Amino acid sequence: MSGELSFIRYICQKEDATMEQRIVKNDEGVSPVIAVILMVAITVVLAAVLYVWAASFLEQGESAPIATFTVETSSSGEYYVKVIKVSKQEDLAGFSYFLKDETGSTYVGGNGFGEIALQMIAGEEHGIERTYNGDDSQLESRAGNVSADDGTEYPVNFNDNDRDGKLSAGDQFTVFGTGNNANGPAQSGWKLDIQFDASGDIIGWGEIN
User: Fold this and answer.
1) How far apart are the first and last CA of the chain?
2) Of 3, 188, 171, which is closest to residue 77 (Cα–Cα)?
């Protein structure tokens, strides 16, 4: 009887040892699997983060320049909004202007807002530049009309003084108020906003005092 018990005890001990060995082997085999799962998970998370970052960057569009303006008042009722500095030069065709009254509302009489550069859009002339060097007769005619106007139809006009086709230091807007040579709407408390069309940002403004 004691011999049988000893044999049974021996068998049980052997099975326990075998089970422990299997468990040890299984534990050793689990670690690489967990490592692979973790690596895949981390890769997926990083890919998602990069996708969100790239998507938000693309939605922001092109970064807008920053411009500084100064305003001088003439005795004849004209306000000169001069470009002092631009953080980076961009084509004039990429900018718009908005003449706003003391309440912040855009002046809608005449050409109180719109494109700065002379250009054809959907078959119509746009822009408030005084000079034109191209070969489009309609734009050439518009430039002449802008230059001859006293603010009645074009309350704002623009001089590209260096003729480089870009918004740059030295360029000047003229905003017409009321005076000897001016018949425009502008007055103290109004301002001229300049917008970068690609981003929709107002990059600078000139306040009329």
Assistant:
1) 117
2) 188
- Count other Cβ atoms within 10 Å, centred on residue 155: 27
The pair of structure tokens assigned to 87 is 């953080």
- pLDDT for position 19: 53
pLDDT for 32 beyond 90? no
> How many Cα atoms within 13 Å fall on the side-chain side of residue 97?
27
Residue 204: closest CA among 169, 162, 164, 154 = 169
Nearest alpha-carbon partner for 169 in 97, 88, 63 = 88
Locate 130 and state its tokens: 């005084």
Distance, CA of 120 to CA of 122 (rounded, Å): 7
Residue 60 has pLDDT above 70, yes or no: no
Q: CA-to-CA distance for 186 and 207, rounded, in angstroms?
A: 11
User: What is the pLDDT at residue 7?
Assistant: 47
Radius of gyration of the chain from its Cα atoms, rounded to whole angstroms = 37
Tally the C-alpha atoms within 13 A of residue 194's C-alpha that lie toward its C-beta.
33
Structure token pair of residue 201? 């940002």
Placement of tokens 């306040």 in the chain = 207
- Of 112, 90, 99, nearest to 171 by C-alpha is 90
Distance of CA 54 to the CA centre of its chain: 15
